Amino acid sequence: LGHWDVERIRRDFPVLHQTVNGKPLAYLDNAASSQVPQLVIERGTRYLREEHSNIHRGVHYLSQRATSAYEGAREKVRRFINAREARECIFVRGATEGINLVMHGYGRKFVGPGDEIVISEMEHHANIVPWQMLCEEKGARLRVIPMNDAGELLLDEYEALLNERTKIVAVTHVSNALGTVNPIKEIVRIAHARGIPVLVDGAQAAPHLPIDVQDLDCDFYAISGHKMFGPTGSGVLYGKAELLERMNPFMGGGDMIRSVTFERTIYAGLPNKFEAGTPAIASQIGLGAAIDYLNSIDRAAAYAYEQELLRYATERLSSIEGVRVIGTAREKASVISFTVENVHPHDIGTILDQEGIAIRAGHHCAQPVMQHFKIPATARASFAFYNTKEEVDRLAAAIEKVIEVFN
Ligand code: PMP
């Protein structure tokens, strides 16, 4: 196990060093949005101070600098996910937009009446609602891979769901509500054996796991920058070039065309075809800097450290009477969902906030997961590599205090 100098890493994240309600901030809501390192802040500031300009259209100096930074960020993304070509990496605002892009561009073109879309029981609403909209429009049918009570997908049932009407499989790599890491390679292999493309929602995987889209062999992979130490408004939709080329554009407008007359528009090639209008230039350049940051640390050691925090937190929380951990899959990212007997998760969140501890309470945009476990909501602590064992101890102590207050 590589050594992980958490105090040194914490110095890279200025936001962590503040007090909240008189207590040092313990930021345990990384699955919602992670924090940004100084490197990303400086890169964004430099763009705004020295390079701010529109891209692609300009022949002038600033536009060339902005374009080269923006396209440079795309190349960083390509390497980060090991895509074959940079044009397979479409810049979007986040995973939600990436999934909607596939729904519109692929789904509306290739899905018809009686066709089927396969998702899973643990999807975020971002990977449910767009497919439901498509089914409603096309008279298609949504099929759902069930999970067991540990929060693991049932692969035999998955395989049995697939048939000649299945047009796409859309599953999450890591569950935001449970932490489960799904066997994506296996899921892709099973779908591809029947010629069915697979979209992976990678929003929760990118901050933790190495991503290799060629090794996974997935057809689409969606990422949110703000969950992987980048700014909000940044994100990527990876797609295999041959699929993206067959798809319709998601939005029409400037920068996505080769030529326009009132009779006919010819679309631009990849990736421009899917990037209508002025994109979030500053945010995507910031995402490139977040990738630089991730490349500068020992990611394997970071992951091992997060797993240690997860193990420790699971042990601490499970030993508190009245606490129930929701999601006990064998392979988990550092997310721990829990309930406390007789206390609503929102009350847990509020009392923890008074202690300076930031967690998320609610259904986590995954209401079907809550329905599976027959609960309205959970409290969720999610760790990044800058969190500490001491913060886990504070979390456990605060939960004990919650139980005292309510009993
Ligand atoms: N999928 C998963 C698994 C997520 O956790 C989230 C964010 N909570 C999303 C999709 C949506 O991401 P965004 O809000 O950044 O578009």
TrEMBL record:
Record's protein name: Cysteine desulfurase
Any one biological process term the GO annotation gives: cysteine metabolic process
Keywords: Lyase, Pyridoxal phosphate, Transferase
Function text: Catalyzes the removal of elemental sulfur and selenium atoms from L-cysteine, L-cystine, L-selenocysteine, and L-selenocystine to produce L-alanine.
Family membership noted in the UniProt record: Belongs to the class-V pyridoxal-phosphate-dependent aminotransferase family. Csd subfamily.
EC number: 2.8.1.7
PANTHER family the record matches: CYSTEINE DESULFURASE, CYSTEINE DESULFURASE 1, CHLOROPLASTIC
PROSITE patterns, per database record: AA_TRANSFER_CLASS_5 (PS00595)
Record-level Gene Ontology MF annotations: cysteine desulfurase activity; lyase activity; pyridoxal phosphate binding
CDD domains: SufS_like
Pfam families (UniProt xref): Aminotran_5
